[in-house]
Amino acid sequence: MISRSMFQIDCTDVIPECGFECAKCVQEIGSSLTGMKGVGKFYTDGEGVTVEYDAETVTAEQLKDVLEGLPSFYESHFVPSIV
């Protein structure tokens, strides 16, 4: 069953000047999510991402856990919440 979840991503503590427009961050989010089994596609949506995934293979909480570990190239990490 294909599901869609929207994740609000607070990146203010990570990169205050970015405003979730950093191509490097968006690229890493994309490769991290689409590399997961069950994830179809994702797209940015304002200050967050919307992910299409197979709910029988992966859960929204698992996707949130991946987002909490990003970006890998900064000491701080995103603070995602499911909308």
Structural write-up:
- The protein has 83 residues and is an alpha+beta fold.
- Helix content is 25%, strand content 31%.
- It contains two helices and four strands; from the N terminus they run E-H-E-E-H-E.
- It has helices spanning 23-34, 60-68; strands at 2-10, 39-44, 48-54, 79-82.
- The protein has a four-stranded antiparallel sheet with strand order 2-3-1-4, covered by helices on one side.
- Strand 2 (39-44) and strand 3 (48-54) form a beta hairpin.
- The longest helix has 12 residues, at 23-34.
- The model has no long low-confidence stretch (mean pLDDT 85).
SSE arrangement:
Layout (H helix, E strand, L loop, with lengths): L1 E9 L12 H12 L4 E6 L3 E7 L5 H9 L10 E4 L1
Antiparallel strand pairs: 1-3, 1-4, 2-3
CATH class category label: Alpha Beta
Shape: globular
Task: List segments where confidence is low: pLDDT < 50 over at least 5 consecutive residues.
Answer: none
Task: Provide a count of the helices.
Answer: 2
Helical percent range?
Answer: 25-40%
Count of discrete domains: 1
Task: Give helix and strand order, one letter per element, not per position.
Answer: EHEEHE
What's the count of strands? 4
By CATH, the topology is: Alpha-Beta Plaits
Largest sheet: 4 strands, antiparallel
Write down the overall mean pLDDT.
85
Q: State the distance separating the first and last CA atoms.
A: 19 Å
Multimeric status of the protein: single chain
CATH architecture identity: 2-Layer Sandwich
Tell me the fraction of residues in β-strands, as a range.
25-35%
Radius of gyration: 12 Å
The main sheet orders its strands as: 2-3-1-4
Secondary-structure class? alpha+beta
